[in-house]
């Protein structure tokens, strides 16, 4: 496969130097152009026609979100990763189908993980060889805490449980803790999820069977040893939604 051609846009010279250094030490990528603001990016995209954009957001003349949207208007399959010092644009970025969203300072392994995700997507769309790679842009649950922003692929989530003032997101590999309100989390999820109980949101696609238990019902999941509760008032809706998937 030809190297993935990248255009980098950032108004911070130190950030450009760091990212350039990391990319030059990563096989399979080349920097096709460097821009210092959003307007330069648009001009560079037309000339260079890269595979991937690495874009800052807060820039002079035209911010990264606006510039990338304009680029997508004439190259709709162009892939892009935002690398920025601001975390509040993450939801907007993923609504635009960003490959990833990295908060500065950039760590090498975090950048490489995002680049590999981009390769997987590009290979798939170009009809690349069969491999155990990501087949489409991943939809993520974005969770913030004081230390970081987490991006949890929706397809990996079995259920979400409210306990006290915390919520716990259960995946096969890890349980993520957050102080976000369960109703706010529910707003970020797609139609695969359902608020089956005041303390539980379940991934309907992962339910293996449901059994009655006292005044409620218990949902069990494929290849997962934990379970979630379903309110008796919602059991019929849960069954109908699972049947319609």
Automatic annotation (TrEMBL):
SUPFAM superfamilies with a match to the protein in the record: CheY-like
Modified residue annotations for 4-aspartylphosphate: 56
Annotated Gene3D superfamilies: 3.40.50.2300, LytTr DNA-binding domain (2.40.50.1020)
UniProt keyword annotation of Phosphoprotein present: yes
Keywords: Phosphoprotein
SMART domains the UniProt entry points to: LytTR (SM00850), REC (SM00448)
Entries under InterPro entries matching the protein: CheY-like_superfamily, LytR-like, LytTR_DNA-bd_dom, Sig_transdc_resp-reg_receiver
Residue ranges constituting the Response regulatory domain according to the UniProt record: 5-119
Domain (HTH LytTR-type): residue spans on this chain: 141-244
GO molecular function: DNA binding; phosphorelay response regulator activity
Keyword Phosphoprotein among record annotations: yes
Protein name: Transcriptional regulator
Organism, as annotated: Cytobacillus firmus DS1
The organism's taxonomic lineage, starting at the top: Bacteria, Bacillati, Bacillota, Bacilli, Bacillales
